[in-house]
Specification:
184 residues, mainly beta, 7-stranded mixed sheet, globular
């Protein structure tokens, strides 16, 4: 029996939009703090391809994408950019890649300059990174949830960030349960 899709296709404009590129995956990142590559399990939320329902911008007939009790709708711009997400997340394993700590101190932002029609600006990827629960550590070391991803809006304030840190250092610190301080 085939496995059910993590994100079933979304409906937009009377067409089904494939979301198989947002299936969970594992990638490896080498941290100098750990003597072996860390296996990072990645999952994506529907915020990577949807936006909050706004009755001034959306039709009540637009198919709903539920996020708990909140209604969201398919966002074509976010969807187009989400096609790049798996490769961008894997690129975090490149030496020198830096991420920003958000002011909420519970998640991180990876900002990438994108020169594509959908963005032509900074693509902001927000994620949470935690050590995997003991029962699953045979398969992976860290869990990453990509909570949201969207282009920067020049008419809105930039996200409030505290500082930045090398992703490989961050991954090693999270795995070892050490402080995840950022350079301010």
């Amino acid at each position: 029996m085939p496995r059910e899709a993590y994100h079933p296709p979304a409906s937009y404009g009377g067409r089904s939009q494939d979301l198989s590129h947002l299936e969970p995956f594992v990638f490896e990142a080498a941290s100098a703090k750990v003597p072996r590559p860390l296996r990072i399990n990645v999952r994506f939320t529907n915020h990577c391809y949807s936006e909050a329902f706004d009755p001034n911008r959306h039709s009540p007939d637009d198919p709903a994408i539920q996020d708990g009790a909140r209604r969201r709708v398919f966002a074509p711009e976010r969807y187009a950019l989400s096609l790049h997400l798996p490769a961008l997340i894997r690129s975090l394993a490149s030496p020198g890649t830096r991420v920003h700590e958000t002011a909420a101190r519970r998640n991180w932002m990876y900002a990438v300059a994108m020169e594509i029609p959908e963005a032509n600006t900074r693509y902001q990827i927000f994620f949470d990174l935690r050590r995997t629960v003991p029962d699953r550590r045979r398969f992976q070391d860290l869990d990453m949830v990509v909570e949201s991803a969207y282009p920067a809006d020049p008419e809105r304030a930039a996200p409030n960030v505290l500082g930045r840190v090398n992703f490989l250092l961050l991954a090693g610190n999270v795995y070892l349960g050490q402080k995840t301080s950022t350079r301010r």
